[in-house]
Write a structure and sequence with these properties.
There is one protein chain. By secondary structure, the chain is an alpha+beta fold. The chain folds into 3 domains: about 100 residues, 2-Layer Sandwich (wza like fold); about 80 residues, Roll (Outer membrane lipoprotein wza fold like); about 35 residues. The chain is built from 5 helices and 12 strands. A 5-stranded mixed beta sheet has the order 9-8-12-10-11. The chain has a 3-stranded antiparallel beta sheet with strand order 4-1-7. A two-stranded antiparallel sheet has the order 2-3.
Length: about 260
Amino acid sequence: MKLYRLLFALAILMCSCNAQQNVLYLQNIGSATECNVPQSSIIRIKPLDQITVVVNSKNPELATPFNSSSNYNALTGAIVTSTSGSESSIQVLTVDSEGYITMPIIGRIECAGMTREELARSIEKLISEGGYIQDPSVNVRFATLTLSVVGEVNRPGRYDINKDRLTIFEALALAGDMTIYGKRDDVLVIREVDGKNLVTTLDLRSPEVFSSPCYYLEQNDVVIVNPNKYKAATSEINQNRSFWISLTSTAISLATFLTVIL
């Protein structure tokens, strides 16, 4: 009897260890461990992105023409449309397929591959070197910046990115973390690169995830959390159960109908 109890306890312990390995992130990593991360991790501007560009100056009248059909409000620091002075509005520019935006006065500007700050400094240089404003200050922001998280997470969906660096773990946090059925070692990131979809597999249990080019996500990335074998087996059992319940219900209804008419 004692032997059976010992074997039973060992079986429970082994199952517990396996379950823990399946759900833990970053296994076999100690405290104060240093891990390398990709050097170029800040989100960069891509074709078809939508951005806002606001030009400021100590003399607001000089900056107004660069903000398209909008007028600069020196008191609030906002850009208001010329047709409605009560509602603030910022001009949204779309990066064309060649990676350029077009601004009033200075024309087309190449911006694909730049960070927000790099583009802002480039526009400031064009304005000052063109003799338009001596002290230009440019603020560039993304108007729309999103990614999608689907699969075995608690809140699958499309999420807005509100900063220039977002890790895979932060994206999962936005989606309410993985469910217990999500495979920590089989997370896919789909990223469009040069017109083609690049699929990268991440193992979130391994410290090597930090060195992946997809550890930091980019705009329009799609994160897919695949289900483990237990979820797949449960789904198949539920489907089979539904089939047999439906078949049994149909058979009972048919038998009842035949009894009535006969």
